[in-house]
Amino acid sequence: MRFAILLFVAAIPAVSGRWSGYLVDSRCYAAEERNVNPGDTEAHIDRDMDYEIRYCSPTTKTKTFAIVDRQWNRIDLDAGGNAKAAGVVRIIGKKRKIIVDVRGQLSTNTIAVDSITVAK
Known about the structure:
The protein is α+β, with helices and mostly antiparallel strands. Helix content is about 35%, strand content about 30%. A 5-stranded mixed beta barrel has the order 1-2-3-5-4. The chain is globular and about 40 Å long.
């Protein structure tokens, strides 16, 4: 049984690549995603996504970060990525919108971050 589980876990692919999007406070943005009318069938129709990005912009006190891509999908950063993102926020300060490029390995909606830079 243990061997079968090990084979299953090893078969889950990790995708290496580059992602670009808005840097947000992960907890704040997740709360905003949950803050919808339960009767809505189209989750993004009644939401002001621009407002949510601005509302959840990270501060120097933010501990967990995520990237929100162009399709408004949230991708969380791993612990190392959170530390790197905190460094970026400390350098540039609080802004309404921070667009970043992230390189790393994606596995189950979390990026194991190799590098994070502010997009030009």
